[in-house]
TrEMBL record:
Organism whose genome encodes this protein: Hyphobacterium vulgare
Keyword Kinase: no
Ranges annotated as spanning the membrane: none
Protein name according to UniProt: TRAP transporter substrate-binding protein
Keyword annotations from UniProtKB, A to Z: Signal
Gene3D superfamilies: Bacterial extracellular solute-binding protein, family 7, Periplasmic binding protein-like II
Length: 373
């Protein structure tokens, strides 16, 4: 969380309490009466693409609402509605854009039909990791470009969650060569699906609740979802024993809060600051939660359920990279704004790669070598 933003919100909240206390008659003897916050509460409705209380993804939305309520002293009250409670999962963007709802929590690549550059603010194949996309949005110009893009639809958006690196998926059979992708029917969305089709496979669009029955019936041969935590809950290991990772399609999947621009402009400055800080806090906590829960769930999958961990070969990675770069470039060349976003994204990824070569990956390798575990 940005320290100055948090302290600013805290200072305003403290000033509100002090004003309420100071309103008492200074001549009154005896103990002071409890302070009363007489400020009108602002209530907002948040619609989401997730089922209510869905672990990791849905709870990130709940945290934004919780943090706003706590930091505002209850004067900013956000009510969260799961997919289907007010509008359908993929209708939340239009609901917020038109003012039928105040805000949403979702993955921005769901809106690629509105503009393909929305993909850059969730994940693209061979794209940025979670920390890299956070750095790009916060300090590399990504946030300003995002606001320009979403502003065309009357929305302002902020990062508010991240699942971290996602796995490559669950497969009923081994994938040893590029030829094994031919004819493969796999549930994989977005640009990752485009890459799979270029490899000769068939990308199938399914909601979360439809995946397991499709694996069970043989409608699909493989699926990606998120990572060990959410994958374990869905029980994919019962139908597809080969678990491949890491994934190429979503190296750090950012989630976002989108707010109707008119609603945002109508908020008082302290409520705006609190909302920004709440999104940052939810973003950080989400990434930490996925890192912890994925580690716990991975051990259960391997030790209790005998899941076999596999990696795609170097040959596969080289071909996937070649296709991915062209797919992402096609998205970036959609129009002038898309091109600016694409070029800024590439620059952010370049910076991340330069630092990454001598930082965490090398450290991880050396740590494994010396610890021998």
């Amino acid at each position: 969380m940005d320290r100055r933003t948090f302290l600013s919100g805290a200072s305003i909240a403290a000033a509100t309490v002090a004003t309420a206390c100071g309103a008492q008659d200074s001549q009154t003897s005896g103990p002071a009466a409890p302070a009363v916050n007489r400020r009108r509460t602002r209530q907002l409705r948040m619609v989401t693409t997730w089922p209510a209380n869905f672990p990791g993804l849905g709870t990130a939305a709940d945290r934004v609402a919780q943090f706003c309520n706590e930091m505002s002293g209850g004067t900013l009250d956000i009510r969260v509605y799961g997919a289907g409670e007010i509008v359908g999962a993929f209708e939340v963007f239009d609901a917020v854009s038109t003012g039928a709802a105040d805000m949403y929590h979702a993955a921005e690549y769901y809106w690629q039909g509105k503009h393909p550059a929305f993909n850059f603010f969730t994940a693209v194949p061979l794209g940025m990791t979670a920390t890299e996309i956070m750095a790009w949005c916060e300090f590399g110009g990504g946030q300003e470009l995002w606001e320009e893009l979403a502003g065309q639809f009357g929305i302002i958006s902020f990062q508010a969650g991240n699942s971290g690196l996602q796995m490559g998926g669950w497969f009923k059979r081994e994938i040893n060569t590029l030829e094994d992708f031919r004819g493969l029917r796999m549930r994989i969305p977005g640009l990752g699906g485009t890459v799979l089709r270029e490899l000769g496979g068939a990308a199938v669009a399914l909601s979360g609740s439809e995946i397991y029955p499709a694996l069970q019936s043989g409608t699909i041969d493989a699926t990606e979802w998120v990572g060990p935590w959410n994958d374990l809950a869905f029980g994919f290991y019962r139908e597809a024993p080969y678990y491949y990772g890491p994934g190429f399609h979503e190296p750090g999947s950012a989630l976002g809060v989108g707010i109707n621009r008119g609603v945002w402009d109508s908020l008082e400055s302290d409520h705006q600051a609190i909302l920004r800080a709440a999104c940052r806090a939810a973003n950080n906590q989400s990434l930490a939660e996925f890192a912890h829960q994925n580690a716990v769930a991975l051990r259960v999958l391997v030790e209790d359920h005998g899941v076999e961990l596999r990696r795609f070969s170097d040959e596969m990675w080289m071909r996937i990279a070649e296709i991915s770069e062209q797919v992402v470039a096609d998205v970036g060349n959609h129009d002038a704004l898309g091109r600016r976003i694409y070029e800024s994204y590439l620059e952010g990824r370049r910076r991340g790669r330069e630092w990454g070569r001598i930082s965490e990956p090398d450290y991880f390798m050396q740590r494994e070598r010396v610890l021998g575990e």
